[in-house]
Amino acid sequence: MSIQLFDLTGKTALVTGSSRGLGRAFAEGLAAAGAEVILNGINEQRLTTAAREMSEAGHRVQTAAFDVTDDDAVKEAFSRFDEDGVEIDIVVNNAGIQFRKPMLELETADWQRVLDTNLTSAFVVGREAARRMVERGQGKIINIGSLTSELARATVAPYTVAKGGVKMLTKAMAAEWGGLGIQANAIGPGYMLTDMNEALTSNPEFDAWVKGRTPAGRWGKPEELIGTVVYLASQASDYINGQIIYADGGMISVL
Ligand code: GCO
């Protein structure tokens, strides 16, 4: 047994939605483990800044701006990777949005937008990546679930449905691609300190609820997900397939 099991030198990882938040932490973790990282997002300026900061920190990083909810844009991005000889070994389907509204007031278009961004994108990007991975007989797909992959919370129905779907998409990928050399697994983060959760972290009642409800007694920091993403991206997890690992300070295990 050696720590080299976790070494990602020579691998290329695409992380969707990675100019900030959890995606950025995933990208930095994979880069620190040796991977060349492709940052993705739709805001070119934010991507360029993130890429510059990561390069200055000594990481190998590129950017690919495309909209993960646009089927054609995803296909074009992968065609460009093909033309440039870029082979994606690891995909982290991280791109996601939140929209908090009680269902009785929720418009169908907002429901759809959340499903497109948080669930369908993982299928579309995963499919394009897997089409190439099966030719090489190897690849790692890491989908980002949530505590809401298992449990509902009022006001976030479409997110909950999308993240429940991400869990089952992960199993579907394992079922179809496991025999072709691909491992598809998911990470289910707990309540994390990110921009997306700003409305929650700044709400004293919600903050107290999270701290009281989580055995760890605190929110998670994005960098605390790095060990899990590196594990799932590496040879160390070659016989793990279709799993969702909750990195949540123990929240999902207790009432
Ligand atoms: C929410 C949050 C979610 C949680 C996540 C915990 O409104 O519920 O924005 O993103 O942080 O569900 O896993």
UniProtKB/TrEMBL annotation:
Instruction: Report keywords, A-Z.
Output: Oxidoreductase
Q: Name one Pfam family in it.
A: adh_short_C2
Domain spans labelled Ketoreductase: 11-190
SUPFAM superfamilies linked to this entry: NAD(P)-binding Rossmann-fold domains
InterPro entries named among the record's database cross-references = KR_dom, NAD(P)-bd_dom_sf, Sc_DH/Rdtase_CS, SDR_fam
Which family does the record assign? Belongs to the short-chain dehydrogenases/reductases (SDR) family.
- State what protein this is by name: SDR family oxidoreductase
Question: Could you tell me which species this protein originates from?
Answer: Salinicola lusitanus
